[in-house]
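Attaching the record inline, Q. Sequence:
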Amino acid sequence: MKFRTEIICSTANLPIGYQDKIMAFGSCFTENIGNRLSALKYDIDINPFGIQYNPASIAQGLNHIISGKAIELSALFEYKDSWHSFLHHSDFSDLSPDKALLKMNNRLEKAANSINKTNFLILTLGTAWIFTLKENSLVVNNCHKLPADKFVRKRLSVEETVAELKKPLEILCTANPDLQIILSISPIRHLKDGLHENQLSKATLLLAAEELCSTFKNMYYFPAYEMLMDDLRDYRFYATDMTHPSNQAIDYIWEKFETSCLSAEENKLRKDLSSINEAMNHRLFNPNSENSRKFANAQLKNIEAIKKQASFINFEKELSYFNSILND
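Structure, as predicted:
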């Protein structure tokens, strides 16, 4: 007897390998997957504009990176003693406009310099609902808690969603014919929109994703949304806010992502790197003890063994940490 419908993912057109460059845009779910890839030493740039929930903001970000044009000071505004940009998440905000601008343009320059060398583009769409400024119809990535009466709220249509993303993706694919795109719909529920409105939004994104995948043969659809909605399908797989996936759900979706999108030939390398990460996170009861020094020595030997197989991986942080235990 079966009591759940398990989703069996197809394999991506090409698997992601350690020699690939990755850029990821989208919602909190992008951060979850991206941070795991980063922890495993993949070359990935995660959200150069901060978290982005809607397709129009993602398209804006891609267009800015493609143009390479720096953000100007005039694009910033002051609100409640901080300086913000409507194109950026609040992570880029600062008490100083110059510091905020520096953070924004440093990330933009880094992304612009690498976008045409990127092998894999990961896009996660969170919501079809957007907010535009009343004064100039600019789509905002983040409202920065400004009064609601400054914005107009609307839901993108399927056609609008496709049109927003199609143009920058066509430019990127023309400049880089080998580019592979992984598209997913975030399983995070946008309950502030309302239950029915959230479902309409996700349906819009699903239909748009289907059309985009038909248009771009180098695009692979990863069913993250369906895994939580139809495979796990239980409130125990949500965090306490009943909105975000629980850690267990993220682990499950990650396992599916690893199987379908990452190189199977590098499974052992990922496992070895996961062991190093666990050792880094292991809390030593007495860092000055002989057992701690033995532990650090063992990890340094493990790192040396990995470096013989994958000399391109940077272990600067790990080597510094384990050597500090030996030198204390």
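Residues 195-215 form the longest helix (21 residues). The beta strands are 21-26, 43-46, 76-79, 82-85, 120-125, 129-133, 139-140, 151-155, 180-185, 219-221.

More tomorrow.
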